[in-house]
Structures are given as structure tokens and as C-alpha cells.
Design goal:
Blueprint: H1 9-21, E1 63-66, E2 69-72, H2 74-77, E3 80-89, E4 98-100, E5 104-105, E6 111-113, E7 118-126, E8 132-141, E9 160-166, H3 171-177, H4 179-187, E10 191-192, E11 196-197, H5 203-212, H6 241-246, E12 250-255, E13 279-280, H7 282-288, H8 292-296, E14 301-302, E15 305-306, H9 307-321, E16 327-333, H10 348-358, E17 365-370, H11 384-389, E18 395-398, H12 401-406, H13 409-418, E19 422-423, H14 424-436, H15 461-464, E20 475-478, H16 485-500, E21 519-529, H17 532-535, E22 550-559, E23 566-574, E24 580-588
Parallel strand pairs: 9-16, 9-17, 11-19, 12-13, 12-16
Antiparallel strand pairs: 1-2, 2-6, 3-4, 3-5, 3-7, 7-8, 10-18, 14-15, 17-18, 20-21, 21-22, 22-23, 23-24
Helix pairs in contact: 4-10, 5-14, 9-10
InterPro entries: Alkaline_phosphatase_core_sf, DUF229
Protein name: Sulfatase domain-containing protein
């Protein structure tokens, strides 16, 4: 661990006492205000995009899909030839390719049977001299029901679970960017969890917390419980959809951007050897994202249709084909929200229309609209409000009418919990409660609590599984840039040692040498104030600062060219020794 030289401890203590005496100190339990999505400090970063426009379809309408049958429309039958090729999950290998069947021509009546959820369709127009002109080439999807008799019906308090997730969506940004969608949720009795907190920096760590209840990201304060190493398989990870399968549920998993998918990220994670759920949409995107049409389409589109709409259509088909059957769906979109704060606003009408058209189909479902964390890269992170909201992902939950009637106390408890701090571990416990039909449970102190059960009045980050770096409960006081210069200098020196010793993980004979960082400007600095219980030495009975205390600087630094990197980090200083250490992960907030 890299450590700075000794500093003038007396000056550090005086500086600390100045802020301590001038600031109201919170207690060790968690208290934080609900964010204002339209705080004046962030308004310059907010922009509503126009609804997405994918343009006209490249190909004329030649086929239609009814169930598992694809047919040439009657007006095209006489002078068109079409071929289909089914494809599906490829078992045993790395989860980045498909198993393709043979090409088969449509029959004389213009019909082709899909035997899997996905197919390539290729059509030619007949012309003089028997020359065939290609006029249609596209990949299509449907839900081909699998062994329906094996799955159980939605009866009594058996409920389906439909989870719809959007990457990098804080509660505040959901309200700003998807106003029609948010209004629909609120008008239809979705419960808005206003203080929901992430437990890891990225999607992987938060997904694992929700799906397994385990920790899969490094933290100084908390041990890892599942690895976050590269080149691992996920078949043996205890994801909760396996438990739903064993309880007679049909399962569904769809995630866009196959190149950076959570379990396959850039080929550095292996995904699954066996298909993880009954219906798995990754195979569709693997094929589509390699196609010429996709590469020629506008951002967020495949031909004349948005990718979000395509993936929502697959979920709609799932709801249609398995009506009255117990279902678990994990639907996730990354493409339109991951890299830019405002792009997701172009999807508002699409999400709103999906909910309007499918609300009745989900009447016996617990519907969970959620996210992993807030935006991690955009310029809003230069503001205090922006940095705070990245810790608070969106979470809204709807209970079906039959559960409300069977257990009327649930709504009251959930509304109470929605105003308290909740975490991704709580969401996992909620899924477990659904499986066990555990609508009531006596309180015992633990890391995660089902959102159906009573939560303690006060919680702490450390006991709730939230690393200090993401804890919204700490009292941060802005300090002058001059007073943070020593900590900033230490951080840059620390980073430069890392760069000097950098080994590129790509296997190559070329050795890279990174240009060292230099501070262009300290954009922001704050000091975390410990609670009164910690800062006062009660054993001495006097209002003096205890021994062995430390203070934590939160720094946002912009580096000089060529990188122009925007670095955010926590740097801890021991007040007894004056030494600095880097805490938690260092974040780069731009690219």
C-alpha cells in the first residue's frame, strides 16, 4: 500500500476541528435527504432528447409472423422465394456464438416453421432469365413455448415476477428522463423506493447482490463472497432464477449489447455453458450485432425498429404465450443509458407504451422496475448532486391485486420501507420471500431485509453491506481546494506508480508505456465528518478529538492532456500519523 510522508499533524487537527465545530454532525445511523431531480446545480447538464427515429425499414414488408409460423404475405407469394434458418444457444462452448440449423426454403404455400425462438430470413425476387435479386434479409424472434405442462399456474398467492431494468438510472434521472413512464407507474400504484442504495460500483456487483444475495466486488471494509475475476463461467453461481425454475416457473433473460453483457463482458467473462433460462435473448443479439443491416442502422436501431422496442416485444410475446403460468423475467437494457445521461429520454414513449399495452397481462405479477446504479460517466458527476445521485438507483414495485387482498398489511409495510434506506440485498431477500410465500417474518438484525417485512428504523451502511465509498449517510462538508492539495498530490503520485508498473492484460508483444498524470485542476473536494460518537472521547469525559481518528477526502481531479481524465477517489488521512491511503476503487468519470 502506498503511503505519503509525514505532515504537520497539528495543522491537520486544527483544520479538522474547524469543520467539526462548524457543522452539525449526524449520528451513526443513516439519514439523508431525498434528492431533488431538478436541483439548480445540475440543470445545465439535463436535456430531453427527441423520441428515437430509426427511419424507414430498408426492406419492403414481405413476411408476417403468426405464432411459430413465418409466411410470405399473399401479394408477394407469386414472385418471391424465401429461405429460413433457425438458430439457438450453442451448448458447451463459450457463450459468444450460436448453433445454426440448415437453410430451408418456404413451402409452396409460402410457410416456414420456426423450431426455435430465432431465425434468419432471406428472400429473393424472381426476375427475367431466372435471376434472383435479394430483397429481404433480417433476423426475427418469437417465443416458442416450451413444455407448458411442466410449469405451474398462477393460483392463490402464487405470483409471477417481471423485472425490468435500465442500466445507470438513478431515481432522479428516471424522473427527469422518463416522465411519462414515471407518471404511469405512480398512477398505477407502483411504490417508489426513494432511498434505494447501490452496493457496488458497476452492474456486475449490483446484479450479483440482487440475484444471489452475495458480494462480488472488492471493498476494503467487506470481504468478497463471489469472485470478480476474468475468464469465469456462471453456471454454478446460485442465481435466483434457478430457484424459480425449481418452483415450477418458466424463466426469461434478455439483455442488449451482447459485447458488454454483464456475464460476458468483452469476451473476458465466459457466460454460460448451458442455456441459463427457458428463454434467452442473447442469441438474437449475437447474430444481429454481426449483421450488415445492424451496422448500417442508426444508433439504437436495427433497421427501422429501435433495439429497446425489439427486446420489449420479446417480453410481450413471453407474457402472451405464458398467460396464467408462473413466470420469472429478468429484462435489462444497457444501450441507451450507459454512456450518456440524457439519451434514455428518447425512449420514454416506448417504455410508456409497453406498460400501457401490457399492464393487464401482468395483473397477477409483481412488477419490479429497477436499476443497478446512477450514471457513472457523464459531466453531471462534476457536481455534488450528480455524485450523490449515482449512489441511488431507481426502484419501483407493483403488487398484484390478489396479493393486496390476501395480505392487506403488505402495502402499508412497503410504503413505510420506501421512505427508509434500502439496498440491492433487500431486493434479493424480497425475491426469496416470493419463492417461500413468506409474507410475514419476525425481525432479526441482518444484512438484507425483504421489502415485504418491517425494516429497522435506523440502518448503518457497514451492517447493510454498503461500502463506505457508496454510502450516502456520511456527512460530507465542502472544503477549499487549497486545503485538499496535499491529498490530491498524494493521489496523483499513487496513480503514477500504478501507471509506471502497468501490465496490459491483452496478450501482445508490444509493451505500452503510459504518460504520467499531472493535475490540471482540482474540481471538487470534500471532507467526511465522523459521527459525534466517534469524534468525542467519552472515556475522558471531555469534548476533545479521540486518538486514532482518520478523515476522508473525496476528490474530483481533472488531469492535463493528453488524457484529460476525470478522476474521483476517496483518500483517507490518519490524524495520528498524518499518513494517506487510497480507499475503495478509484473511478474515472469520463472516457
Amino acid at each position: 500500500m502506498y503511503i505519503s510522508s509525514m505532515s504537520d499533524n497539528l495543522n491537520v487537527l486544527k483544520k479538522f476541528e474547524k469543520y467539526l465545530n462548524g457543522t452539525s454532525i449526524v449520528n451513526s445511523s443513516c439519514n439523508f435527504d431525498v434528492q431533488n431531480p431538478f436541483d439548480k446545480s445540475i440543470l445545465e447538464y439535463i436535456k430531453m432528447e427527441d423520441p428515437i427515429d430509426c427511419g424507414e425499414e430498408k426492406f419492403d414488408k414481405i413476411i408476417s409472423i403468426e405464432g411459430n409460423q413465418v409466411k410470405i404475405i399473399p401479394s408477394k407469394l407469386e414472385d418471391h422465394l424465401c429461405y429460413g434458418r433457425n438458430f439457438e444457444f450453442k451448448s458447451g462452448g463459450k457463450d459468444d456464438d450460436n448453433k445454426y440449423h440448415e437453410w430451408i426454403s418456404f413451402d409452396n404455400n409460402g410457410f416456414y416453421n420456426m423450431t426455435t425462438d430465432f431465425a434468419n430470413i432471406l428472400c429473393y425476387k424472381k426476375s427475367l432469365f431466372n435471376i434472383k435479386i435479394k430483397v429481404y434479409e433480417k433476423t426475427i424472434s418469437t417465443i416458442l413455448p416450451q413444455n407448458i405442462l411442466e410449469y405451474e399456474k398462477e393460483e392463490e398467492d402464487d405470483v409471477s415476477v417481471i423485472m425490468i431494468g435500465i442500466d445507470s438510472m438513478s431515481r432522479s434521472n428516471f424522473i427527469r428522463s422518463l416522465p411519462k413512464t414515471y407518471k404511469f407507474l405512480q398512477n398505477n400504484d407502483f411504490i417508489d423506493f426513494k432511498r434505494h442504495v447501490k452496493v457496488a460500483d458497476n452492474t456486475y456487483g449490483n446484479w450479483i447482490a440482487i440475484l444471489t444475495g452475495l458480494r462480488a466486488s472488492w471493498s476494503k471494509d467487506m470481504p468478497m463472497e463471489i469472485t470478480d475475476e476474468w475468464n469465469i463461467w456462471f453456471d454454478d453461481i446460485p442465481v435466483i432464477w434457478k430457484n424459480f425454475t425449481s418452483k415450477g416457473y418458466v424463466t426469461f433473460f434478455a439483455e442488449d449489447r451482447s459485447d458488454i453483457a454483464t456475464f460476458n463482458f468483452k469476451g473476458k467473462l465466459n457466460g454460460f455453458k448451458k442455456q441459463p433460462t427457458t428463454h434467452y435473448f442473447r442469441n438474437y443479439w449475437i447474430d444481429v450485432e454481426r449483421s450488415i443491416l445492424y451496422k448500417q442502422s442508426k444508433f439504437g436501431c436495427y433497421g427501422g425498429t429501435s433495439n429497446t422496442e425489439t427486446q420489449l416485444d420479446y417480453l410481450t410475446d413471453f407474457l402472451d404465450k405464458y398467460q396464467n403460468i408462473k413466470k420469472f423475467a429478468w429484462w435489462w437494457s444497457t444501450e441507451m443509458s450507459h454512456d450518456n445521461l440524457n439519451t434514455i429520454s428518447s425512449m420514454d414513449t416506448i417504455y410508456h407504451n409497453f406498460l400501457v399495452n401490457n399492464y393487464k397481462k401482468m395483473k397477477d405479477s409483481i412488477v419490479i422496475f429497477f436499476s443497478d446504479h446512477g450514471n457513472r460517466y457523464d459531466n453531471i458527476r462534476e457536481t455534488n448532486v450528480g455524485r450523490f445521485e449515482t449512489r441511488l438507483p431507481f426502484l419501483n414495485i407493483h403488487l398484484p391485486k390478489k396479493l393486496k387482498e390476501l395480505y392487506p398489511f403488505l402495502i402499508k409495510i412497503m410504503i413505510e420501507n420506501s421512505n427508509k434506506m434500502t439496498t440491492q440485498y433487500d431486493l434479493h431477500e424480497t425475491l426469496k420471500s416470493i419463492l417461500k410465500k413468506e409474507w410475514k417474518k419476525d425481525f432479526t438484525k441482518r444484512r438484507g431485509y425483504s421489502l415485504f417485512h418491517k425494516h429497522p428504523h435506523q440502518r448503518e451502511c457497514i451492517t447493510s453491506g454498503i461500502p463506505e465509498n457508496y454510502c450516502p449517510c456520511n456527512k460530507e462538508v465542502d472544503i477549499s481546494l487549497k486545503e485538499s492539495h496535499e491529498a490530491a498530490t498524494f493521489l496523483v503520485d499513487y496513480l503514477n506508480i500504478k501507471l509506471t508498473n502497468f501490465n496490459n492484460f491483452v496478450k501482445s508483444n508490444i509493451k505500452y508505456k503510459c504518460k504520467l498524470f499531472e493535475i490540471d485542476k482540482i474540481l471538487y473536494s470534500s471532507l467526511t465528518i465522523p459521527s459525534d460518537v466517534i469524534t468525542k472521547d467519552v472515556h475522558l469525559g471531555r469534548h476533545i478529538i479521540s486518538n486514532h481518528l482518520s478523515i476522508v477526502y473525496r476528490l474530483m481531479i481533472r488531469m492535463k492532456a493528453p488524457s484529460r481524465a476525470l478522476i474521483e477517489a476517496l483518500v483517507e488521512q490518519n490524524l495520528s500519523t498524518g499518513k494517506f491511503i487510497v480507499k475503495e476503487e478509484i473511478e474515472r468519470n469520463n472516457k
